[in-house]
Structures are given as structure tokens and as C-alpha cells.
Amino acid sequence: MKSCATGLAVLLACFPYAIAAPATAVAPTRSESVPTSHGPFTGTPTTTGALSNSVLASSIAPLPPNPTATTYPSDGQLHEPQPAPYTPAGGLGTNGTEPIYNVRSDFDYQSLAIALYQEWLELDLFHNGLATFSEADFTAAGLTAEDRYLIQFMAEQEVGHATVISNMLGAQAPMPCAYNYPFTTVREFVDFCQKLTRFGESSVYGFLEHLDSREAATILLQSITTEARQQIIFRQFNGLFPMPVWFEVGVPQSWAWTLMAPYISWCPANQTRLAWQNFPALWILNQPNPARVNGSAGYNETLTAGMNTLSNANLTSSQACLNTTDKSNDCGPAITQNRTIPLSWPGREVRLMWDTPGKPVGPNNSYITSSQAGSAKFVAWVTQLNVTYSPLTLQSNTSNNATNGTMQMGTTIQPNVETFAGDPAINGTMFIAITDADPVLTPFNLSMINPHVVAGPALYQAG
User: Fold this and answer.
1) Long-range pairs, 293-297, Cβ under 8 A, ≥24
2) For residue 18, is pLDDT > 50?
3) Does the pLDDT of residue 83 top 80, yes or no?
4) pTM of this prediction?
5) Where is the composition biased (Low complexity) (predicted)?
6) Domain segments of the chain: what residues?
7) Which fold has domain 106-462?
């Protein structure tokens, strides 16, 4: 692997399809083999904490809008000379400069690195699911040989994604790791995949517009649109309505790293480390379960915190919606499903439990959960174009056990909010977090919420 620079040969190495190449010059995929072992990390970490340098402030202070942000007249007329026929003035990277597909800043490198961690995980995950479960297991879940091949093809897509991001990062690009998955059934595997691809897609939306390298942003956009298709397919496999929102949500990198890290057990020596934060874990105790006829009726039916993937291990035949005689609430694989009983609704009480900071997580247990926030006061609902807050009611009881130690508990009410009239904002697979404040934020500056996060995020299966 080579670092990017100018020149035809190096440009092809950095991004093999940047220009047309002869048919014999087929660009290779990244060749590192994926570890075959799975399970939790059992050793002693040699390094702990996120990658860090000198820190200039405790948080990034909010600033007023740029004074020129509203000066363009927006009247449909041309206001500057055209640089070429049929070409309006303006735009970034439109002046004819030869594009170089590399990273330009620490922000770029760390953002693409977390995306690569995600691609390696997905590559292993799809292969692992196919290897773990038999043809009979998939058939019992309503999935055919063609469906299994589609999952195999998605793994092949991840080879391409991992290759192109590795080429843009250079020689120190993260390598594949070993992973620890909680699922034991096909249904749980499929739900794990649809939730993993949700935050993989959303994290790229969260940083894409902030990259210094517009060229790298272009390639990531082309890969993440494929990830979006994967997320829809896993929703269809899960018997969920494929696209229940008008806008897809974007989240900060630290949110994705918090959700991803618990499933990475160990990585190779000298693995590139990340600078992003790991927040304390958040459980949704009454997470809507799409494997149920009445999805909102379950309690403690998730496999882990964070992703809150469904567990169908203890569902009776009358409770399970797969192959149910109640066809209005069937959840078998389908192009689309519109279930009569909703998974959630405005006014629903949501019961939460969250961890305290200071727990080891992630590769080699070498990252430590942390929070800069004060006391827990709100639940942030991050979905589509909205960041909505609901009051958090703290419970006097706490949970104490040998595995997780002391954890706080609380409840909140699912808000009734629309993106635009006729579009319920809280729908699909979306994000919640416990916060100490309710700052007004938009999709473009959502990372400003990080200093206020007490715990989370968690994926809420709203629909």
C-alpha cells in the first residue's frame, strides 16, 4: 500500500479507478486475510485510551453563523462571470485541478479510519453469518439460497470498500481484527446486520460534508450509497418496512465508535488507533422487538447494550410474528411489510438503563468509556433532520451485578414530533442518547452534542 501523491502511477495506487486504465492493469483488492477466530478478548491491554495529542480546550465553543452565509440573493439569476460555457461560478473543486484521492487532515484520517474499521467488521460479519448457520436455519427464517447469495455478494462489496478506503489512507490503514458477536439465531443475525449497517451508513453521513478532502468525500459517498442499500435489504429480510423515513439520519463518529467497539475483541499489533470517544453503554429495556407480533410488548429482549439487537430465543410460537397466522402482523422476509400493530408510537414510555464511565471496551479492551457531561436530564432523539429532547425521569433504584457493576435507570416518553407535516420524525432504526442539556442542533453541527452525552447512543427500533 502506498501513500498518495501526484503522478499517474501513484494515483492509480491511491485510487485505482481515478482514470481509465488498460484492461491488463486490473487494480488488486486489499489482500490481508481476515482472522478466523471469534470470541471475547481475554488478555491484558498494553495500551489504554483513545489516540490523543495536546488538547486545546475542553470542548469546541459555539460560534454565530458566518456573516456572509446569507448574502447570496437566491433570485435565480447569475451574479458572477461564468468560468466556462454552461458553467455557473462557484463550487468546490471545480477549477480544473487534477483530483488526488487522499486524506488532508487528522480529521480526514480519523474519519476514514473508523469507516475502514466498519468495513472490515461487515466483511467478517456477513461471512460469519453464512458460515455459522445452516441452509435449514436460513430456510426456517424464510431466507432462500438466493438470499444467502445476496449476503455473500454484500461481503464482496465490503472487499471493494475496504480496498478503496485503505488506498486513500496509506500504509498505516487499519487491518482486519477478530470479532465477538452476540447472535445465536438467523433472526438475531439479520437484526444485528440491519442495525450495524444503520450506524455505519449514518456515521459517514455525519462526517462526509466536513472532510477537507472533497475527493475522498466523493468516493465515500459512492460507497455509502451501497451501504444504504444493504441496510434496506436487511430490513426487508427482517420483515420491516424498508424505508419508513423521508431523510436518513447522520451521527458523529464517536457515536459509531461507541456502538462498534464492543464487538471488536482484538486487533493486530501496532494497529492504527482512533481518537474518537467511547461513551458509556445504554440499554433500552423495553426495546421494540420486530420478531414479535406485538413488538412493543417485550421486556429485556435484547442481546447487548448500544445496538440493542433483538433476541428471539424465548419467544413462544404465539408471540413470534414469523409464519404467524395473523397475516396483518407477519414479519417474514418481504419486499415490504405494513404491520397493523406498530413497534412504537408517540406517548410510549421508554425504559432505560445506562452504565457509568471507566469501563474497558473495544480492541484488546484498550479503550475506556468516558463522559464529560453532568447529571442526566434528557433523552436526545436523533432522527432524520431532527434533534428532539424529552425529559428524563430518574429512577431511585439502580442495577447492580457482577458483570456491569452499578448502573442508573430512568424513563422517558417518546415525543410526538414531525419532520414536516405528515412525516413522523421518530421512525425506523434511529438513535437516542442520555444528555445533561438540550442544545439546539442541526444535522450539520450534531457533533456539538458530544460534551453533553451522559450515555449512549442506543439504536431505538421505532419502526
Assistant:
1) 293/318, 293/319, 293/320, 293/321, 293/324, 293/326, 293/329, 293/341, 294/319, 294/329, 294/341, 295/321, 295/339, 295/341, 295/342, 295/343, 295/344, 295/461, 296/341, 296/342, 296/343, 296/344, 296/345, 296/348
2) no
3) yes
4) 0.91
5) 35-48
6) 106-462
7) Ferritin (1.20.1260)
